[in-house]
Amino acid sequence: MRTALAIARKELSIYFTTPWAYAVFTAMVALSSFFFMGLLQSFQQAQEWAQAVGWNKLPPDLGAYRNLTDGVIVQLWGIVLIVTLFVAPFLSMRLFAEEKRNKTFELLMTTPVRPIELVLGKYLGGLGIISATLGLTILFPLILTAFGKSTSGAVLEWPTVLLGYGAVLLWGATCMAVGMFISSLTESQMVAALLTFVVLLPWMLLRGLAQGVEEPLRSFVNYMAFDSQLQNLIMGVLDLKALVFFFSVILFSLLLTHRSVEAQRWA
């Protein structure tokens, strides 16, 4: 485990000594801020409309705007999930592909480092950078807590906020695991990023694609869709089935990466 942690520290130092990580940080903050301001504006308009005509006369889909948690933060987490879908492939693409492109992968395989330690170290490094990227988004609920106002108690329902934020981190961890496996298959970082996106996007949208499928296949496809598994967690509902699903995907991706590294070691 000490070797894996050393590899993770090396990966993090590489991330934070290159401008690429800071470009990703900037993009995440800029996009999240843009949508955050839009959600606040929509929330304010809904509140003003409700004060004028009453909540009973508003369309049912505006019911979420009764409070800042459902009207702003829960919807913001949904947007961050989509942004992560685009960001994570560019963070995971270099984990193994860069080693192969620089011809250091073969050298790494001659060192007394077991493949499992290499895989865990690389993943922990990737997990650290995606967590740092997504960690910036927790600023938005903190801003609402500091400057928001509520006539019915706390500004935000923090259990719901934190569970939704945990779902965002879990999604980021899953994207990094899948991306790392694909990165282990190629020496081109751009190909790794593109293939990761091509795999994650349809997987995310499986629920919509399954609408025309007959039972029991529809239930199975809905269960396999990332979107279906994230829905309850984002809304603040602890779903153990979803946790098992995501941890299974992460472990399976790590296992595939380990097998890929092992195969290339003896090739």
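the 2nd protein, sequnce then structure:
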Amino acid sequence: MSTATSTTTAAALTDDRRGAPRRPRRQQGALGRSVLLHALSLVILAVALYPVLWMLVSSLKPTDEIVGDASLVPSDASFDNYRTALAGIGGVSAWTFAWNSLVLAVLSVIGTVLSSAVTAYAFARIQFAGRKVWFALMIGTLLLPFHVLIIPQYIVFQKLGLVGTYVPLLIGKFLAAEAFFVFLMVQFMRNVPRELDEAARIDGCGHVRVFSRIMLPLMRPAIITSSIFAFIWSWNDFLGPLLYLNDPQKYPLPLALRLFVDQTSVSDYGAMIAMSVLALLPVMLFFLVFQRFLVDGVATQGLKG
């Protein structure tokens, strides 16, 4: 018995000695993969941030160095481009361009959130004839490129005498023409338990009170997510203002950048890049402040009540 016991103990010790090096090897392999993954992430981050870095550095360079010099470090850094950009162009101040962009962005957020929320409630909570067909048609509009609708929309607004105003840029926001936001809110509402609606109806609530007292408070993540996207898309919109606005006093920032580049005369690329940096700051600050709500709003789309 003692011989068998000693043999078993010796075998166990031998197995332990053989298996001892395996744990450090696994740890070394995991550490190597982690280092490689972080290095690859840093490379991708550097490639993604290089255009932003180039724009920041170029805003401190004279115009002749921006066009002909490929070096990243400016030889004579100054803030003259920012002074020129803030002074405006064509007799219009840069603050006027910024105010126009802010007005368009805020009204776009208000119109998009209100109209999309009401439309989404109708699709998600109200039973009416052809609901699925109308919802499918609305989703189908996402397949239509904006460029296909440019000519007929422009003709309609021109006949109505609305070209040169902000109405063509905003009327679609207040009529729930943005199918993406309606779809986002519909998916969120479908995850809200219907027992809440039934309990409210027992207490005598109609659709208006159910929507305002129950749905809107619960839809906070979806509303903030839609607001972020609507604000950024409106702030960065260039083609819409280019089509419908013809007065520099009404230009937003993206369209004002075009004024600094004139192919028939001298182009001030330095001031244009400086203005681009100034136009980028509000969007970055807006995103940094609300990014937590953006992640929460997208993440909750996959949850069920």
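The two ends are 64 Å apart (CA to CA). Residues 91-302 form a domain with the MetI-like fold fold (CATH 1.10.3720.10).
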